[in-house]
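A reminder before we start the practical. When you read a complex entry, don't treat the lines as separate problems. The point of joint prediction is that each chain is placed relative to the others, so the output describes one connected object in space. Small molecules and nucleic acid strands, if listed, are placed in the same frame. In the example below there are two entries. Take a minute to note the order of the lines before looking further.
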Amino acid sequence: MKTDTERISRIQSAMEKEGLDCLICRLPENVVFMSGYWPLTGRAFLLFPRQGTPMCILPSIHEKEAAAELWQGEIVSIPFGRITSGDFFDQVRRSMKNVLAQWKPKKIGYEGSFETMAPPWNAAEPAIPAAPTRELLADVAAGASLIDATPLLYRLRATKTPMELARLRVVNEISAIGLQAFAQAVRAGETGIGLASMVEQVIMNQGTGYAGAKRVRAFAQVSTGETETIDGYRLMLISTQREMLPGDLAMLELAVVADGFWCDRTRVCVAGTPTAKQSAAFEAVMRAQAAAVKAIRPGVTAESIDAAARAVIREAGFEDGFFHSTGHGLGFRYHEPIPIIEPGVTTLLETGMVITIEPGIYLPDVGGLRMEDDFAVTETGAEYLGPAESKLAQ
Amino acid sequence: MKTDTERISRIQSAMEKEGLDCLICRLPENVVFMSGYWPLTGRAFLLFPRQGTPMCILPSIHEKEAAAELWQGEIVSIPFGRITSGDFFDQVRRSMKNVLAQWKPKKIGYEGSFETMAPPWNAAEPAIPAAPTRELLADVAAGASLIDATPLLYRLRATKTPMELARLRVVNEISAIGLQAFAQAVRAGETGIGLASMVEQVIMNQGTGYAGAKRVRAFAQVSTGETETIDGYRLMLISTQREMLPGDLAMLELAVVADGFWCDRTRVCVAGTPTAKQSAAFEAVMRAQAAAVKAIRPGVTAESIDAAARAVIREAGFEDGFFHSTGHGLGFRYHEPIPIIEPGVTTLLETGMVITIEPGIYLPDVGGLRMEDDFAVTETGAEYLGPAESKLAQ
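Here is the predicted structure of the whole assembly.
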C-alpha cells in the first residue's frame, strides 16, 4: 500500500515536540492511523519509534492482511488459533522486550484514555486494552516513563492528510449507495428494522470492492413516525417492526466504515406527501446545513459554525426543536472529539479537519428531521464529501 | 421484565464468599447479566450491592429502555445528548458518591481485566472503560478496596440459570433463520460478501420481534472455494467478492445477538455436487460433533469432550486437518473463556454450562469444513440449542 509519508512525518514531529521516543498502540483506529494496517480484532500491537522503522506484533492468523496493508515496518507474527499456539500475551511480551531493548526509549506514549472505540470489521467481539495490557506495558517499559498519549493522538487525528481525505471520499461515496436505496424504499408498510437492515446489506454487498475497499460495514438505525423520530436525536436509537403509515417520516442514521475510515450521515424521507409543517422544517434544516457549510473556513471558531446553523433554525421558528450540537469531528471513528461544533467551543477550524454538519428539528406535530453530511475544511472553505441528493419526498 | 431471582441469589452468594460488598460494572455484557438491562452504548454503570437494591446510573437518552428491562433497582438518569447536558462523568461521579456514602462498602469489585467485549446492538461505537473510568472508581471508592472481579464474573457467567437458557434457545432459533437462508442461497455465481450480508439482513429483519426480541444483530463471515475455506479456521476472516464456481464450498461463520444473549454457529454447503473427499470430510465432522455431544454430561472434563471429537476425525484419516479447539463457552459474549474444550483442559462440565461443539477439517484437495452448534449441559447429557438441519448439498 502507498505510504502516507505526510502522516508519518506529522506523527514524528509531534513526538519530537512532546519528547516521546516511542508510541505503543493496539486500538484498531490508532493502528490504521499510524501504520496503514487496519487490524482484524484489536490484538495487533504497533510499536512506532520517533525515528526508524515501526514494528507490528500480531496474531499469526492476521499476518497476510498486515503484510498487504502496512506502509512500512517489520511484522512479528505470534502463533494464534491452533491448540499448539501457546500463550499469546507471553509471546507478545517477549517480542516487545526484544524490540525495546534495542530502541531503549525513555518516554513511551500509549492510548490510555480512549473511552470509546471504533470496532474492527467483524464487530462481534472487539479486543480491548484492560489490566493485562497495562501490566504488559509496565513490564516491557522496564523503567521508561509511560505517558498517556490520548490527547496527542486525538489532536493528530483531527487534521487529515491528503491521502486520508481520499479515503474519506471513498467511504462517503459508498454510503451514498445506502442513502439512495433508503430514499427509494421509504413507503407506507415498510418498517424501521426492514429499512435499516436493507441499507446495511446493500452497502456491505455493493461497497465491498468499491475503489478497492476490502472491508466495508454499515450500522444503520431507522426511526419512523412522529413518536420515534422525535426521539431520533438520541444516540443509538433502536429500529423497530412498526409499520409505516402514509405521511410518516422515516429517519436514517448511518455509520459506514471502509478499511478503517468512517463516515456519518443522516437522511429523512416521508412516505407519500409531506405536510406543510414537515416541508417547512425540512427546508429549515437544509438551509441551516447550507449556512453552516458556507461559514466553514480555516481560522474560524467551531461555535461560529454552530451559530450559523442555529440562526437559520431560529429564524424559521423551530428553535425549541434544535437542542443538540451542529456537528463533530470524525474519520478514524464514527465520532471524534476534535472539534465539537456547538456553542461555547472556541476551537479554531484548520485545513484538513473533517466534520459533520447535522442540524435537526424534533417537535410534536412535525416529528424529527435531521440532515447530516461530512465536510472537509479546505484552504478556501468546505469540501462536501458526498455525494447524495436530499429530498423529503420522491 | 420477569426477574431472574436465581441469577441474583447466585451473584449474592458468590459476593458473600469473596467478601465483596458491592460490584460496579459498565460493560453491556455484565450489566445485562446482573440486571436484565442490556445497555445501548456502554455508558450505563450498574452498582450491585450484596444486599438490597441495585442502582443503575445512565445517560438520560437510554432511560426508557432501562426502565422496561431492569429487573429491580433504581435508575439515576444523567442528562445526555443536548447542548445543555453538562459533563456526563462529573455527574456520574456525584451520583455514585451519593450511593456509596449510604452503602459504605469496604470491598468493591469491578471488571478490571476484560480484554475482549461484546458490543451493544449498535456496534458502531462501543464505550469502553479506560483511565477516566478507573480514576472515577478510585475516587468514588473513597478508601474502600477495589478488587478486580473479572475471574468471579466469568465463573458466574459460565453456568446459566433456567431463564438464561430460555434466552439462549431464542437466539439460537433466530440464528436458524439465517442458517436456512444460507443453505438455500449457496450456488455458483454467489459471493462470500453477498451471502454474508444477506444472512445478516434476514436475521436482523426477521429476528427482531421473534419471541419478543427487541434488539437483534448478526455478524456473518462467508469464505468460498478451497483457498478461502482452508483459511476458514482463522478468527475474523474477511468475506470477499470472489464468485463461486460449481463444486465450491461456502462456509458460514455466524454470531447472533438477541438482547444481550449470543450464539455462535457454523455451516458449510457446496455449490452443486460435493466431491467424494468433501463428502467424507463432512461426514467425519458431523460424526465428530455427534460423538462430542454424546460425551457431554456434568462431571466430565472439557478435554474428554475434545478427545471424543478428535478420535472420530483421526479414525476418518483427517487428523492433520483439525488443529483448533473443539469448542468454548458462550452466552453473554460470542466466546467466553469457561470452559475451553481442548486437550489439557481439566475443567469439569457443570449443569447449565453452554458450549459450542465445532470440529473442523482444513486440507488441500478438500477445503475447509466446520460444523458448529451450541449445547447446554443438562443433568443427564446435552441439550441442542438448535434447531437447524445440516446438509452439505441441497
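Discuss with your neighbour: The longest helix of chain B spans residues 162-185. What might explain this?
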